[in-house]
Structure formats: C-alpha cells, structure tokens
Design a protein that fits this description.
Keywords: Chaperone, Cytoplasm, Disulfide bond, Redox-active center, Zinc
GO biological process, one term: protein refolding
Number of domains: 2
GO molecular function: protein folding chaperone; unfolded protein binding
CATH superfamily of the largest domain: Hsp33 domain
Shape: elongated
Pfam family, one: HSP33
Order of helices and strands: EEHEEHHHHHEEH
Strand content: 15-25%
Protein name: Chaperonin HslO
Number of helices: 7
C-alpha cells in the first residue's frame, strides 16, 4: 500500500452531519471488539464533518483508506425521517486506485439523504455506487456479494446496578458527605441519556460499615 500521508477520502456532498462552531479538538473512536474492554482511539478534529474526521482516523491510525457517508434527515420538530450510513474500506493488498475512483463516483451521485428520502434502500444505493459511470477514465464496474444482513436495533446495556457500583467507588466518607446535603444522587448514561436516581438507603451496607 502506498504511503500517502495526505490522502483522506472526502465526500462532503454525501452527508449532512456538518460540525459547525466546534473548532479544533479531539474525538474518541470507541470500538467494541468483543474483549473485556472496548478499544478507544483518539484523533484530532481537523475537518468540518464527522465522515472526514473518521476517515482521517482510519487512514492515520490504522492505515486503511476509507470512505464514509452519514445521512440523517429530520423535521423541524426533531422527528427523524430517515437515517443511514455506509463505509467502504480497502482490504489488504487492494489497489488504492479503486477507492479513488469510488470516491469520485460517490461525489457524482446525489447526496445520500436525498436518495433515502426518494425511497432508495441501502442495497440500491450500493448498486448505484458500483454501477458503471459510463466514462472512459472512471469506469467502475465491480462485482460484489452481500454476505450478511442484520437488523439494527438501538440498545444500551446500561443498568442501575452498574451505576450503583460505580458510585460506591466514591467510598464511605464521600457518600456520607454527599447525602448530608442531598436527598438523592442522580446519574445519567452518557450514551443513551437514561437517568438513574439513588437514595441513602441504596448504599446502606457500605454506610453502616
């Protein structure tokens, strides 16, 4: 694979998740690899969109050329009309020219959120991406096979016991100090936003020791 430090596949027209007003910073990439703890990578936020920054992370940290498109269309009152995403990565030994051509093809089609609003499924969008562009320089006809389809469901594995155990690590004296001024402790999951409330009775065992 060629060493191109300045290669970041970018498809700004394909997504509407522009990050405005955040400036420079860092972003954490959390990957659940089935191990005891998730893998956490950190990358700089250098661009104006999530797909660009995530693509840069994969190239700089894992040396994998990547194209990412995110789409989310909502109404004025916050109701989600449609959402979807695709990610294309080169396998080891693959020609980087392929993803360069695919990037140009992705830029040539309509934005992903418009395609989804028009009723196209993800499979139809894949067909559109891999179909022939009918140009001499950028002909892109690739056979592909759908290996697996999974139904995605929103799910968070947070629970009351986990938060209670975390709060207990504050120790007896700190808990006593908190409950001297508060009737309850409220904890909020940073992933799903669910809130859990605990009273002094929930920590009776540790407070009596």
């Amino acid at each position: 694979m060629a060493n191109k430090s300045n290669y970041y596949p970018r498809t700004p027209r394909l997504q509407s998740w522009e990050v405005q007003g955040l400036g420079k910073g860092t972003m954490r990439i959390i990957k659940d690899m089935g191990l005891k703890e998730p893998y956490i990578g950190i990358t700089n936020v250098d661009y104006s969109s999530l797909p660009d920054d995530i693509s840069a992370y994969f190239y700089n940290s894992e040396q994998i050329p990547t194209i990412i498109s995110l789409a989310c269309e909502d109404t004025n009152d916050g109701k989600i009309l449609c959402s979807g995403a695709f990610m294309v990565q080169l396998l080891p030994g693959a020609d980087e020219d392929f993803i360069t051509k695919l990037e140009r093809k992705a830029e040539a089609i309509r934005p992903m959120n418009e395609l989804m609003k028009g009723g196209m499924s993800l499979e139809q969008i894949i067909n559109l991406l891999y179909d022939d562009m009918d140009t001499a320089d950028d002909s892109l006809v690739e056979e592909y096979e759908i290996l697996e389809e999974k139904e995605l469901k929103y799910n968070c594995d947070c629970n009351s016991d986990r938060f209670q155990r975390g709060i207990m690590t504050l120790g007896k004296e700190e808990l006593k100090h908190i409950f001297e001024g508060e009737k309850e402790i409220e904890a909020e999951c940073q992933f799903c936003g669910k809130k859990y409330k605990f009273t002094e009775n929930d920590f009776e065992d540790i407070l009596k020791k």
